[in-house]
Specification:
With 405 residues, the chain is mostly helical.
């Protein structure tokens, strides 16, 4: 198969996979928790486990790569197998309506979805040319966001009409995992290069961290991303808190909260994702990352330092615009700096650290709201993002994102 045919086949099945992936995304962010709360009256432990399932998968992703290396199977086949396990877990939750089953199924399925991200990134790096990689991947992102929005509307109507239909929603979610697995299996993929320096898969994963000390660009970029990501993840859950809690004097209705936290940002994401995809292929990556950081910093400052409608709209739009490019950059940036045979391992380090801050940042944020005004916390987060951008200035001056990895 020629490289052009491989790229076309990858693009086709990645677009098709975006549809069930949108269903999975909507369910993981809203409907699994809704079922746990409304149907099973879940206790705090159960809710926290479901909420943490995605970040748990990111933590586990550090071990996904050495396991795939040792299985000596194509990366997308390993990813498909993980999604099939998720399908079986969700089907079991639909057949056995019991809270512990739902919790375990959520952790296994959603965690598994996030754990395979390094395998998908490595496949993009291999199958797409650098000059078109961002553009092609961004189109799949648009389809996924649209599918998630449609799924949210349909599932919302279904469960509003009758909560007893939750088993059907879990069944549809199981089908989405199975469809995603089928699409992944059909995407051409190679065996991952065997870069591990030790015999055991557990210690092999830890040995991947050696690249942080060996590669200065990786080290500084991860440091910058930790500051920016920590600030962003601190403020993300506080948006609903800020708009709905009487403590902050706004007290919007659920529909108004959804407008500022979902509808406006996601609408901007849909419009701007293709543009960011083209920019990723042509623009110096570090300049693009600094631009995105500016959007996040200004969006957070605008959203949290005022209570006017204008401030909330501007903040929501800026956060949506930054998120459109930020998700693409998060998924593909290692293809700009990593040697071709280390893309999966570089990405596994990145996703692992994302999981770390994803677990810690929200807890820190809610604790800080007890001692700091939320406007002050917003400015502090914006300051962290500015500092993260300054760390990238030397790299922006010395490296060009247009250079293929």
């Amino acid at each position: 198969m020629t490289s052009h045919a491989i790229a076309q086949r990858t693009y086709l099945y990645d677009l098709l996979r975006a549809i069930p992936h949108g269903v999975i995304e909507a369910s993981s962010t809203t409907f699994l928790m809704l079922v746990a709360v409304k149907v099973f009256n879940a206790d705090p432990l159960a809710k926290s486990l479901i909420a943490a399932s995605g970040n748990a998968g990111l933590l586990v992703s550090l071990w996904t790569v050495p396991i795939a290396e040792r299985l000596r199977r194509p990366a997308t086949h390993v990813a498909a197998a993980v999604m099939l396990v998720g399908a079986a877990a969700m089907l079991l939750a639909a057949l056995l309506p019991w809270l512990p089953v739902l919790v375990v199924a959520s952790v296994v399925s959603i965690g598994g979805t996030m754990s395979i991200v390094p395998l998908i990134t490595a496949t993009y790096q291999t199958n797409y040319e650098p000059r078109s990689r961002g553009r092609l991947v961004s189109r799949a992102f648009v389809v996924r966001v649209a599918a998630a929005a449609i799924c949210a509307e349909l599932f919302g109507r279904l469960l509003t009409a009758n909560l007893g239909f939750f088993r059907w929603t879990l069944g549809v979610l199981a089908l989405a995992f199975a469809a995603s697995a089928l699409c992944l299996w059909r995407i051409p993929s190679q065996l991952l290069p065997h870069n591990s320096t030790s015999q055991g898969w557990f210690t092999s994963a830890l040995s991947a961290l050696r690249f942080v000390s060996e590669d200065r660009t990786l080290r500084w970029t991860l440091t910058s991303w930790m500051l920016m990501g920590f600030a962003n993840l601190m403020m993300l859950p506080l948006r609903v808190e800020f708009l709905a809690n009487p403590r902050y004097g706004i007290m919007l209705s659920p529909q108004q909260v959804a407008l500022y936290t979902l509808l406006i940002p996601n609408g901007v994401r849909l419009v701007l994702s293709p543009l960011w995809g083209r920019l990723f292929d042509r623009m110096n990556f570090f300049a693009m990352r600094i631009t995105l950081n500016a959007g996040f910093a200004l969006g957070i400052a605008s959203f949290f330092t005022g209570t006017s409608t204008v401030g909330l709209v501007i903040g929501s739009m800026l956060l949506g615009a930054a998120a459109a490019g930020g998700e693409l950059a998060w998924s593909l940036w290692v293809t700009k700096i990593a040697p071709a045979d280390r893309v999966a391992e570089y990405m596994s380090i990145h996703t692992f650290l994302t999981g770390v801050r994803g677990v810690v940042a929200p807890a820190v944020a809610f604790q800080l709201t007890q001692v700091l005004p939320i406007s002050g916390l917003g400015l502090f987060a914006a300051g962290l993002i500015v500092l993260a951008s300054l760390l990238l200035v030397p790299e922006m001056r010395t490296r060009s994102s247009a250079t293929p990895a």
